[in-house]
């Protein structure tokens, strides 16, 4: 068992112990926290990584002593630090990582994302996601739970239809053309993007090939509200919370937004690519 998973198991056991000492069952604990019962189960059984926020509210719900609360926070921080490695994260399965993402997104009302190499997960079709997850499993190993990971990713997308949330996505035109999946899967994915661009709370931008770029594309990044930034590299994800770092990525996003096209202009780019794919398969 990896150090990451061992820490997560110990933390889950500690959370369960505190709940049981308060004579609460899982359903009662979920009601007290305002969570779905499945989240309580996932945290206690080490299928999801508890955040600092999770353990703080858990500790309050069971009236944990200050020293116990500090211990929980320390364990959560240790687990999250280890989890930043993609290989460590996927050791227990891709679906577990997807549950962590779903939980983070549930606490976020404004998401901004830039992806220079891949269509973002919140917009992927099931088949597109299946190919991507299969590739990740081959690269990083771990439990083969691609089917469950696809299911959770599709559940994550339900938040797109919540009008109280705002989403801003930007990709370079090349991302929509990359053959990371079979052509027929890519064509279905582009059809999905045409539908998403019609949602009033979703802003989907495409940076055309002929746009003058404000800076070179390096890594994908996601901004959650104005409080956290996730920056992905090939081996790990950086989680940035410093005000200066967050401001830097917000500025970078706005610079990209100025050169991207949206709404009807973005749809025109997507439809042009669909036509190009049709011609390519006919030849």
Descriptive report:
There is one protein chain. The chain has 283 residues and is of the alpha/beta class. The protein folds into two domains: 3-83, 434 Repressor (Amino-terminal Domain), CATH 1.10.260.40; 93-282, Endonuclease, Chain A (2-Layer Sandwich), CATH 3.30.870. Helix content is 56%, strand content 11%. The protein is built from twelve helices and six strands. The protein has a six-stranded mixed β-sheet with strand order 3-2-1-4-5-6. Strand 4 (221-224) and strand 5 form a beta hairpin. Helix 7 (94-106) packs parallel to helix 9 (146-156). The longest helix has 20 residues, at 263-282. It is elongated. The mean pLDDT is 89.
CATH class membership of the largest domain: Alpha Beta
Total number of helices:
12
Count of separate structural domains? 2
Helix/strand/pairing category: alpha/beta
- Can you tell me the overall shape? elongated
N- to C-terminal distance: 51 Å
Q: What is the residue-mean pLDDT, rounded to a whole number? A: 89
Assign the CATH topology of the largest domain.
Answer: Endonuclease, Chain A
How much helical structure, as a percent, in the residues? 55-70%
Main beta sheet strand tally, sense and closure: 6 strands, mixed
Compact summary:
The chain has helices spanning 3-21, 26-33, 37-44, 52-61, 66-83, 86-91, 94-106, 126-140, 146-156, 183-196, 243-259, 263-282, and strands at 110-114, 166-172, 202-207, 221-224, 228-232, 237-240. It is an alpha/beta fold.
């Amino acid at each position: 068992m990896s150090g990451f998973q061992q820490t997560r198991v110990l933390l889950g056991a500690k959370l369960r112990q505190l709940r049981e000492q308060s004579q609460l069952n899982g359903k009662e604990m979920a009601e007290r926290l305002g969570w779905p019962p499945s989240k309580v189960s996932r945290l206690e059984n080490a299928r999801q990584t508890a955040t600092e926020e999770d353990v703080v509210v858990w500790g309050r719900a069971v009236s944990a002593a200050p020293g116990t609360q500090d211990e929980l926070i320390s364990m959560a921080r240790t687990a999250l630090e280890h989890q930043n490695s993609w290989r460590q994260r996927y050791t227990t399965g891709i679906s577990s990582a997807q549950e962590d993402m779903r939980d983070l997104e549930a606490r976020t009302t404004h998401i901004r994302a830039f992806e220079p190499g891949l269509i973002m997960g919140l917009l992927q079709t099931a088949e597109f996601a299946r190919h991507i997850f299969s590739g990740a499993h081959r690269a990083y190993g771990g439990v083969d739970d691609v089917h469950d990971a696809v299911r959770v990713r599709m559940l994550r997308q339900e938040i797109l239809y919540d009008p109280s949330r705002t989403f801003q996505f930007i990709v370079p035109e090349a991302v929509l053309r990359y053959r990371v999946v079979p052509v027929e899967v890519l064509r279905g994915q582009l059809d999905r993007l045409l539908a998403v661009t019609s949602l009033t709370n979703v802003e989907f931008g495409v940076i055309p090939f002929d746009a003058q770029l404000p800076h070179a594309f390096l890594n994908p990044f996601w901004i959650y509200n104005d409080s956290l930034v996730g920056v992905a590299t090939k081996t790990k994800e950086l989680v940035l919370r410093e005000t200066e770092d967050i401001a830097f990525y917000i500025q970078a996003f706005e610079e990209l937004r100025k050169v991207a096209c949206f709404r009807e202009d973005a749809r025109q780019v997507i439809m042009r690519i669909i036509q190009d794919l049709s011609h390519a398969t006919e030849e």
